[in-house]
Write the structure tokens for this entry.
Amino acid sequence: MNKEFYVIVFKSVHYAIKAEHTLKGKFEIKIMPTPREISASCGVSIRISKSDLEAIKETLQASIDEFNIYELVESGEGKRAIKMD
């Protein structure tokens, strides 16, 4: 069974905290350690749902320059991280 979710990663904890404050109360988010499949970021990420992806992306682009979004796909073969545009 495949399981998909999206993770926002940041260059520093400062940006992660700023993003959390920007998104909290507006969207359902979960703070989590950055998955090991994603190495080019700080250790804190935000997990989001696919349904909120575009709205969250627009919200963050208005206030934070330094972030990337990855789709994580879990299957019987393990996890894969796919960087989104």
Observations:
- The longest strand covers residues 67-75.
- Residues 13-23 form the longest helix (11 residues).
- The chain has one domain: 3-83.
